[in-house]
From TrEMBL:
Top-rank taxon, per record: Bacteria
Record organism: Paenibacillus pini JCM 16418
Family to which the UniProt record says this protein belongs: Belongs to the glycosyl hydrolase 13 family.
Gene Ontology biological process terms, A to Z: trehalose catabolic process
Signal peptide: none
EC number: 3.2.1.93
Identification of the protein by name: Alpha,alpha-phosphotrehalase
Length: 559
């Protein structure tokens, strides 16, 4: 009974269940732990909760290695717990979005256990098998995104199988219509349980070039992504899912698009294409990667960041696509530490990032902890890390000739574990996350960085997010305003306007520690916004310039 495209003025809260809230003393979070905290999330004005994988899994990739798509892993609880979560959310007019990982399954999935048993097993072609190359090695030179070859040799049947991620994550063969039917069936199962939407994991990798050619190293040695990213049949497959499930159940869907293009994302998210509601892309989170290489370091390029955000705002608007807006997720270091000052100016920086993102066109995602200003942890040594990608890359960096300290430093900066420490609930023991032994360390700053104190303080980061979400719902220009960039290469400021002719929203964000003067182009008329009903988020300028906009000055450097 929601209006069409209702999610265009919604906000989504992303929950990494392993680190959210533990109610069983296991040291890992669980579904009941999330249900306990629904009102905390509701307090932000959130409409949709994206729950990351809680299916049966050996946890080699923290649940992104699914061994049974139809059952809840006992570590996270029971199907009854999931049903209770759905109904508790619905009581509050909130919605559950589940994470669906169908580019690959765990090698512990019964499909793979069948497939590996013999070449003529009916499940053999659920996966991608190839004979060894002439030299007995892997069929081509593709590398896994977690390091090492993208192929694993299976002794029993003497063939290699494709693993774009961990060696225990076997790529499913979407050329096989039985696999596509299995996906329709599992999506339908969850839709029938009242789930309102899906986040589709690396969904633009599901169609591989059937030749599986060697990569000539134009991006990086054996990169291979050109041969399976936004592949030949990917839109056909997604339209099939839309026709059979998404539109049948009026679901909100977001595709995680690894290494994709603007043109592709327009096609994936323009409603006329009937594919997804919106897409994640990651180009703005690679502006600190030298030559696109994640495991090398450089300071981030501010102008490139602003250009990418601008190109995607203008491009998706022009093409009729729809962005999932985000700075943070469970695969990225915390933006607070990456792009601003997470120490002396932590509070101001967190608000700066929030306003800068939430003023853009798209559906904003808040990743757990972002709303209370959680920074990257202070790492001591490699024993503190849990992420398979980080642990693999530490070894690979040593093989590339880095010293242990150099390799550890790169991992400290880049690791996905930077955003996977447990949520900080209050100043009680272990931040109120668990009374057991936490699976990963807890940030020792919880006595002064925690949700309880944030909710209590009306000027907190938490309430800043609440106001932004409130404005998104009550001021149309947040949703339909046309974007234009206002700063021409300013070294410290990112400024843009959004206008729908009745109103103009202006966001001026000072990403530096100095106070800056920023002259708005004089075409902005000088009459105060009539409906200044929304709580304006003002910087501490000593005078509020009279404009026909809601002006949000975020010169945190001048606080
Ligand atoms: O992420 C895929 C992805 O693009 C990132 O993991 C990135 O490739 C990686 O960090 C290398 O830089 C999705 C999930 O979000 C991630 O947690 C899973 O590990 C991955 O897919 C495999 O399912």
């Amino acid at each position: 009974n929601q209006p069409k495209d209702w999610w265009r003025n919604s906000a989504v809260y992303q929950v990494y269940p392993k680190s959210f809230n533990d109610t069983t003393r296991s040291g890992t979070g669980d579904i009941r732990g999330l249900t306990e905290k629904i009102d905390y999330i509701k307090g932000l004005g959130i409409d949709i909760v994206w729950l990351q994988p809680v299916y049966v899994s050996p946890q080699n990739d923290n649940g992104y290695d699914v061994a049974d798509y139809y059952n809840i892993d006992p570590a996270y609880g029971t199907m009854e717990d999931l049903d209770e979560l759905v109904s508790e959310l619905k009581k509050r007019n909130m919605h559950l979005m589940l994470d669906i990982v169908v580019n690959h399954s765990s090698t512990e999935h019964r499909w793979f256990q069948e497939a590996k048993s013999s070449r003529d097993n009916p499940y053999r072609n659920y996966y991608i098998w190839k004979d060894p190359a002439e030299d007995g090695g892997p069929p081509n030179n593709w590398q896994s995104k977690f390091g090492g070859p993208a192929w694993q040799f299976e002794e029993e049947t003497q063939q290699y199988y494709l693993t774009l991620f961990d060696k225990t994550q076997a790529d499913l063969n979407w050329e096989n219509e039985k696999v596509r039917q299995e996906v329709v069936d599992l999506l339908t199962f969850w839709a029938k349980k009242g789930v309102s939407g899906f986040r589709m994991d690396v969904i633009n990798l599901i169609s591989k070039n059937p030749e599986f050619p060697d990569d000539d190293g134009s991006i990086a040695p054996g990169d291979g992504r050109r041969f399976y990213t936004d592949g030949p049949r990917v839109h056909e497959y997604i339209k099939e899912l839309n026709e059979n499930v998404f539109s049948t159940y009026h679901l909100v869907t977001v595709g995680e698009m690894s290494s994709t293009t603007l043109e592709q994302c327009i096609q994936y998210s323009n409603p006329e294409q009937q594919e997804f509601s919106m897409t994640f892309n990651f180009h703005h989170l690679k502006v600190d990667y030298p030559n696109g290489q994640k495991w090398e370091l450089k300071p981030y390029d501010f102008e490139e960041l602003k250009k990418i955000l601008t190109d995607w705002q203008a491009g998706m608007q022009q093409g009729g696509g729809w962005n999932a807006l985000f700075w943070n997720n469970h695969d990225q270091p915390r933006a607070l530490s990456r792009f601003t000052d997470d120490d002396e100016y932590r509070n101001e920086s967190a608000k700066l990032l929030a306003t800068t993102l939430h003023g853009l066109q798209g559906t904003p995602y808040i990743y757990q902890g972002e709303e209370i200003g959680m920074p990257n942890p202070k790492w001591n040594d490699m024993t503190e890390f849990r992420d398979i990608e980080s642990l693999n890359m530490y070894e690979i960096l040593l093989q590339r000739g880095k010293t242990p300290d150099e390799a550890a430093h790169i991992v400290h900066v880049r690791s996905r574990d930077n955003s996977r420490l447990p949520m900080l609930w209050d100043d009680s023991d272990q931040a109120g996350f668990t009374t057991g032994t936490p699976w990963i360390k807890i940030d020792e700053r919880y006595p002064f960085i925690n949700a309880q104190s944030q909710v209590k303080d009306p000027n907190s980061i938490y309430h800043h997010y609440r106001k932004l979400i409130e404005m998104r719902k009550s001021i149309p220009v947040f949703v339909d305003g046309r974007y234009m960039r206002l700063d021409e290469g300013h070294p410290q400021v990112y400024a843009y306007a959004r206008t729908n002719d009745e109103q103009t929203l202006v966001v001026i964000s000072n990403f530096s520690k100095e106070t800056v003067k920023f002259e708005l182009p004089n075409k902005f008329t000088k009459n105060l916004m009539k409906n200044a009903s929304a709580e304006l988020l003002l910087g501490n300028t000593d005078e509020v310039p009279e404009f026909s906009q809601i002006i949000m000055l975020q010169p945190y450097g001048s606080y």
